[in-house]
Amino acid sequence: MKPHMDNRNPTRSVQIGSMAIGAPHPIAVQSMTATPTQDIDATVDQIRQLQAAGANIVRIAVDSMRDVESLAAIRDLTTATLSVDLQENYRLAEHVAPHVDKMRYNPGHLHHHEPGKPWQDKVRYLADTAAKFDCALRVGINCGSLDPRAQRQHAPDDGLQTMLQSALEHCEFLDHIRFTRYCVSLKDSDPQKVLEANRRFAAERPDVPLHLGVTEAGMPPEGIINTRLAIQPLLLAGIGDTLRVSLTVPNDQKWQEIKAGRAIVRDVKAGRPHQADPLHLAPLNIISCPSCSRVQNGAFVELAQRVREMTQYARDFPITIAVMGCRVNGPGETDDADLGLWCGPNFVNLKRGPETLGSFPYDAVLERLKEELDVLIAERFDT
User: Fold this and answer.
1) Which site from 7, 23, 243, 284 is most exposed, i.e. has the minimal number of CB atoms within 10 Å?
2) Rounded to two decimals, what is the model's pTM?
């Protein structure tokens, strides 16, 4: 098979079900289901919609044995190439592996279960399970949930180096135990950090396939611009083998992620990358995580849209507001924002940096957010 683009990094082939990623293969575009995994019919329907839009891989979140049971039923109803997100419980691997083509684990989550066990033993178990059931692995590094062991070795504000160290040591260990059927992702909500982290990793390990993306790109069109700012320069440099555009959209609009991803690949391949000008973005930065099956209340997407509308009066101030839809990345991502909304099933946790200001009903949190935003503007900009 001819290379998709002439200057691709010489990454090795990694088989994922009936397809493969790596330099000899076209760049794959993927998305993640936003329906509750236990809603089998809705999840299968969304997988089909994503396939119809051109998705090569569809990822599903699994957080419990009930999710595993639903996953088995989903597998019987679709021929899609499926990946699974193990989240905090790495021990679910042996239960999900028979039903998927790839498993994603986050080094920052391995400490949640059996904290006294060395991380190497846990990764060996994951690799052995993947090999037994003919699965690939993704080592998914996320700035919002970094490995606390690696964090202690770097300055508190040096998340970039922590991400890189974590990725490189996991690759080294997987190679050591002779498991090479893996790819890596290094994601952040800041496009420039995504760009730098992946450039550094690719320089160190040009053989390892990379999955590209911005963790919480936001709502369209800003979310697409943010993603282009990170991904286009990497693809132009030959870095990247698969990608996702992570957008905050309603469930019936998930296909927009695939459409946007396909457009990025098409434009770069044609040598006509879209000019993703950061000047088109307002100084006020609203980051929001993509709608996915981990979201505990579907009102999260509507709340993100309302936050954007309500804060238009402050768009000229360089302030970051994070709107997070689940417990997985919510705490870490809102810690790094000036103001953060971490959405639970019934209440929204409002934060100023790492400080929690209280929990508020979905229909009442905007008023308090505006109060805090006004205070922040007055303090920082002497208005």
Assistant:
1) 7
2) 0.91
